[in-house]
Amino acid sequence: MARLTHLSRSIAGKSAIVTGAASGMGRATAHLFADEGATVAVVDVGHDRVQAVVEEITAAGGTAHGWVCDVADPEAIHRLVDDVVERSGGIDIVVNNAGISLIGGVTTPDEEFEAGWRRTLDVNLTAHVRMVRASLAHLQRASTGGRVVNIASTEGIIATGGIAAYTAAKHGVIGLTKSLAVELGRTGITVNCVCPGPINTAMTAAIPDEAKDAYAKRRVPLRRYGDPEEVAHMTLSLVLPAASFVNGAVVVVDGGMTIRHT
User: Fold this and answer.
1) Nearest to 41 by CA among 74, 67, 7
2) Which of 33, 113, 166, 225 is catalytic?
3) Mean pLDDT score, 97-111
4) What is the CATH number of the domain that holds 116?
5) Is residue 1 part of a domain?
6) Reduced to 3 states, what is the DSSP secondary structure of residue 218?
7) Residue 166 contacts by C-beta under 8 Å, 6 or more apart in sequence?
8) pLDDT in tens, 133-163
9) Catalytic status, residue 215
10) Please, what is the average pLDDT of the chain?
11) What is the number of domains present in the chain?
12) pLDDT class of 215 with cuts at 50, 70, 90
């Protein structure tokens, strides 16, 4: 009997860029995409960490190449895109995952606040649109439609005091996602956003385990922090050829944290 379905759930043969891929959710996404048959551009700022992820993927039978790139540098983004296309033949998927969180609120000294604000927005927001713009012509040529996934945060939905730039940037990522989804939809490119909640990554590593446990039991219905791979699987779902009618979505992966009232 012939299959009733005709939309593919495979990214085998696709070329994907994943920024911030040397650790945490980016590393998990790079591994998962490679497991699913994609050629992955592992992008981050540290050579040794990038190379380590490439070697892990290669040892597991996947295909990955590494690039050291500060996504806050627009020229570096253009060089990256050119290099990826030269090596992989095109770009089908862009995952804007790179991010930083710097402490800074209304009482932070001016010089420190201004520097942190500029750096945070450059990495967490401006780099996203620059990466899409640099990759646009290649995404438009993707055989089953280009895919962009921006990794925001539940800080784009709710807020924590004292990290003004991070919270503002993540709210901006959600708005950027929606704007690009409207603008690029006519070209067959989908743009979606994932908002992770409390996840065990390098960004949360300094939090003591007992504090994480107490917070999760108080705020998260699933009563735990998430694993980076759990976020990566949602990202994978959004880049599948079968996800061709999902556009402008803001998907929360937080164990139910943001819906909990009491």
Assistant:
1) 67
2) 166
3) 96
4) 3.40.50.720
5) no
6) helix
7) 100, 101, 102, 120, 124, 153, 155
8) 999 999 999 999 999 999 999 999 999 999 9
9) no
10) 97
11) 1
12) very high
